[in-house]
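pipeline: protein-struct stage 2 | run 1193 | UPAR/Ly6 domain-containing protein
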Amino acid sequence: MYKAYGWRGRPEELLALAVGPDLTYVHVQRCHGTSCNNGSFAEVPRGKPNGKRCYTCRETGAGECNRRQLQSMRCTGAMDQCVKVQSTDKNNPRTLLCGCGTPNLCHPWQPLARLLLPSGHKIYCCSESLCNRAAPRWDPLPTLLLPLTLLLLLGAVWN
């Protein structure tokens, strides 16, 4: 739980991310006056299914976010965005996690998202069901073999 005293922003915000059975959230309730944040926050319920389905995974190094191993999950409550978090390593971009999230988690100016997600990673959000599939890794071999195969076929035809 994080409590602070402040004036800026909306009076109440919810940022939530569900990855499989795990739910992580930041529930902000801003108040004014001395000692206004003495109370405790109520636990945020998951809510009822909202009709959205998203892919879910949490990469631990064992290939959980591999396209062939992805599972899907039913999104609930206000979590109506499919979310994908990817590394920003240009030499080895990879999906780190996928799940369902609230729309305000997806705003690039949302500083509270750093409390839920690893810093220095790219967050992708989409609103269609199952739109957050991990990107396939680019395999250069087929791209290189195609011109070579065409050359061999043309060479065989001309001989």
